[in-house]
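hey so i finally got around to running the thing on that chain from the lab meeting. sorry it took forever, my laptop kept dying and i had to restart like 3 times. anyway pasting the input first so we r on the same page abt which one it is
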Amino acid sequence: MPELHHREAGEAGNPAVLLVHGYPESSYMWRDILPALAAAGYHALAPDLPGYGDSPADPPGSWERHVEALERFRTRRGLDELALVVHDWGGLIGLRWACDHPDAVRALVISGTGFFPDGKWHGLAEGLRAPGAGEELVDSITREGFDAIMRQVSPALSDAALDAYWVCFADAAHGHAMLELYRSGDFAKLEPYEGRLAALGVPTLLLWGAGDAFAPPAGAERFAAELPGSSLVVVEDAGHFVFEDAPEACATAITEFLAALR
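ok and heres what got predicted. didnt touch it at all, straight out
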């Protein structure tokens, strides 16, 4: 199994924080959060999931295989106990991993995602999941079109960020891996996980963009209702890509949340 490329900040031996990106992002999305965590005394690690960023695709690129890849990364890095920070698809992957490895998790930061068996995919995801239509959609997206779509959702995105996130459309192997992930994403697979997230019993921060159109704040409120004692921070003037729209606010919220646990 190939090693996952990752970004890292802080000293090994400090409390570990594992950050898991979403679609179509990579570890680049954590570029402002990693140094803030290091400055606060944490050892922060953010892998590129298979087929994203600088990690090669590792077919089949299914949901289950991504969960396995995350566990291999955690094991190879020797992380026994950690705080988990997740966004978008990183939530579906990371929270499933957390439920499968409850002894490894001491805190959660959940952002812009869901973990509910009755969940519904948004329109773009439904297009990617459809046989034939998904291939046509991936093949039809040009770099100019990708930039326009992403900036419509998050005007703050820099050219460097768009360069980093374009990778998952850059060639057929990456595009196929992306389709495999979405097509494996049947929410019914979460039925065996009902109640298990709450059963972790760990401190949880819900960090949401007020204007999130892909994972609306109503989902954050549902998490809050299902996770007793969780804290909810809604970032105004931010959308789904909240870490791009408001990096300083997100870094502050996460470091303050973790500091309170020490």
